[in-house]
Each structure stands twice: as C-alpha cells, then as structure tokens.
Design a protein that fits this description.
- The protein is an all-alpha fold and 381 residues long.
- It starts with a helix and ends in a 5-residue tail after the last helix.
- It has 2 domains: 184 residues, Growth Hormone, Chain: A (Up-down Bundle), CATH 1.20.1250; 188 residues, Up-down Bundle (Growth Hormone, Chain: A), CATH 1.20.1250.20.
- Helix 9 packs antiparallel against helix 14 and helix 9 packs parallel to helix 15.
- 79% of the residues lie in helices and 0% in strands.
- It is found in: Membrane.
C-alpha cells in the first residue's frame, strides 16, 4: 500500500477522534450550565434540543456540500464551528443564548459526522478491507479522552471556560495535522441527496434512533443523574460527574475496537441481541442501586452493549435492497440522529413528571425493542 492511502486512513481516524472529543467535551459542562442558568430539568431538556436540531439541519446540507466541495472542506468548517462554540457553552448565562450556541455546536458536529463517514466509506472501499469499526472506535476513544480530560481539568480546579478553551485548542491542533490528507472530493451518486426511509430501511433507522437516544441519554443526563441529590441522583461531586460518560465511552471504545472479531465469531444477530440486553441492563443497574459506583458501572455496561449496535445495523443497510445505498445511508443517519434530537428533551420532560430515574428506565425499555427488532431483521444474515 502506498503512503497516500495510509495518510488518508490516518487522517480519517483523526477526524473521527476529533469529532468524539469535541462532542464529549460538552458532557461535563452540562451540570455547570444548569446551575448557571438556574433552570429545571424540563427547561434544560428543551434547551438541549438545540444540539439535535443543529445536527439534523446541517446533515443534508453537509452531504451536498461534501459531494460538491469535498470532505476536507466540510470537516474543517464543521470542526471550526464546534471548537468555537465549546468555550461559549462554558460561559453563556441566558437560556436563549445557550440554545443558540447549542444550535451552532450541533451544526458543526453534524456536518463533521456526515463528511467523515463519507470519507470513511471512500477510504475503506479503496483499501479493500474492513476499516469502519476501527474508525468508529476512534470516535469513541475521542469521546473518552474528551470527557475524561475535561473532567480532570475541572477536578483540578480549572474554570469551565479554561477547560473548554484547552480542549478546543487541542482539537484544532489535531485538525491541522489531519487536514492536508483529508479527501478533497466526496462521494458522488446520481439522484437526490436525501430521501425518506421506507420498508426495512425505516426499521433499521428506528433501531438506530433508539441506539442514538441511549447514547444521548448518557451524554446529556448522565452527569445530571450522578450529581443529583436524593432519589433523583447519586450525590456525586459535579466536578466528577462527567466520569459517567467517560466510563460509557471507555467500554464503547473497547467494544468497537474489538467489534469486527466479535461479530465474526458470534454473528451480527447475536451481537445485536446481546448488546441490546446488556445496554438495557446497564440503565436498570444505574437506577436500581443507590450508589454512584453502581451508576458508573451501569453506564459502562450501556457503552459495552451499545458499542456494536450501530455498526451492525449499518452493515444491514448494505445488505438491504429496498433503497439504494446512496440514499439509505444518509436517510438512516438522519433518522438515527432524531434520537439525539428528541431524546434529551423527552427525558427532561419525563423527569419533571416521573423523575429522572424512571425516565432512564424507559430508555432501557426502548432498548428491548432493539433486541426484538434485531432478532427479526433478516438483513443481519
């Protein structure tokens, strides 16, 4: 293999790591934002809609822009937007400002997500061997580094703004290394850039939506749950509450980096069913045992169980014939991100009515639908 493909693979891995790191940097800042704004769980949930709305609005535009202007352009632009927004998330003190910044932050993350996956498809196809699980494993590794690094800075006494600036600066440094070897072109295909999913593609998209919702529940509410008092939380110091997402990211990273071998040994159907059961059990453990250690273990189990759900489902997209792959992939990606859009707000509203613990249990119940759907999905082979 020539040096050019190797450099492109390395740049793709950096892009995935970068996206995970920037996104996870927001998780430890959520309790500080809630305290600064002095809002309820329900209001915070509505404000968190901004991240999902920004992502979903940006995705179709990012796909079209990457096809016309190249993956490199979209990844750089999206990363710059997200890195600029992260420090602002650490200081804004008005609800409408937080919503506005989350829209920009989500748009940057969503644009990078689409473009880096387009680049990953091109690079993997050129290599002639499986690379996708490893790429997504780097996203999870970035999530681990972003959440743990931010939590470490905050625990050491750094102000949220200083911690966010440090993480954004490191991300921009990584972007500078990767940029020269990101692809100047994007995937090109005939027909519309986006289509509504139908048939089995709709079913796969719905399962992806649940998986994204579970991940979003840990990202946006894990720290709130661990730092909360009484029956609604575990009383952990807010400076350490981001470790919940770090534990989730650690086990998800390990699961994805070993995912290809696991799927090859046990088969995609068993991996999907077992993963859904394990993730549901993780939420149940976090809620049922009134100790922050159990919360960390529960979120770790969620990460382990959810790690290969989305990769296995994307493999199923390639096997289905209901829609062309060029239309099915962006459609399912957008539907999956609907979980990021609806999940945080829904959990916040439910937390107002039945409590955060019960809201997280409902997420566990939705993961059981992944178990049933995975067992019946013929495209898993």
């Amino acid at each position: 293999m020539s040096s050019a493909p190797r450099r492109q693979q390395r740049a793709t891995r950096i892009a995935f790591f970068l996206a995970g790191c920037i996104m996870a940097g927001w998780a430890p800042l959520v309790p500080f934002a809630k305290a600064r704004l002095e809002v309820s769980d329900g209001v915070l949930g509505l404000l968190l809609l901004g991240l999902g709305i920004g992502s979903i609005l940006a995705m179709p535009l990012a796909g079209a822009a990457a096809a016309r202007l190249g993956c490199r352009f979209v990844i750089i632009l999206g990363s710059l937007l997200a890195c600029a927004a992260l420090p602002l998330l650490a200081v804004v003190a008005q609800p409408w400002l937080l919503l506005a910044v989350l829209l920009v932050f989500g748009a940057g993350i969503g644009a990078v997500d689409v473009a880096m996956n387009m680049q990953a498809i091109i690079v993997e196809r050129a290599s002639g061997r499986p690379l996708m699980s490893g790429f997504h494993g780097l996203f999870s590794l970035g999530g681990l580094a972003g959440a743990a690094g931010m939590a470490a800075l905050l625990a050491a006494g750094a102000a949220p703004l200083l911690a966010a600036l440090a993480e954004a600066a490191l991300a921009l440094g990584a972007l500078a290394v990767a940029a020269p070897h990101l692809l100047p072109q994007g995937s090109r295909s005939e027909g519309p850039a986006f289509a509504l999913p139908h048939g089995v593609v709709l079913a796969i998209g719905a399962l992806c939506c649940i998986a994204f919702l579970a991940e979003g529940a840990v990202l946006d509410w894990g720290a709130i749950f661990l730092a909360g008092e009484g029956a609604a939380g575990r009383g952990l110091d807010p400076a350490y509450a981001g470790l919940g997402y770090a534990a989730f990211s650690l086990t998800m990273t390990i699961g994805r980096l070993t995912g290809d071998r696991i799927v090859q040994r046990f088969g995609p159907r068993r991996v999907l069913v077992a993963g859904g059961l394990l993730a549901a059990g993780g939420f149940a453990l976090a809620v049922a045992v009134p100790a922050w250690e159990a919360g960390l273990l529960g979120f770790a189990l969620v990460g382990a169980g959810a790690s290969n759900i989305v990769p296995v489902l994307f493999t199923a997209i390639g096997r289905q014939t209901a829609m062309p792959e060029s239309l099915a992939v962006p459609a399912v990606t957008t539907l999956g991100y609907a979980g990021v859009l609806a999940g945080p707000a829904a959990i916040g509203i439910l937390a107002q009515v039945i409590g955060l613990s019960m809201a997280l249990l409902l997420v566990a119940g939705l993961l059981l639908a992944v178990v049933v759907g995975g067992w019946r999905l013929r495209e898993l082979g």
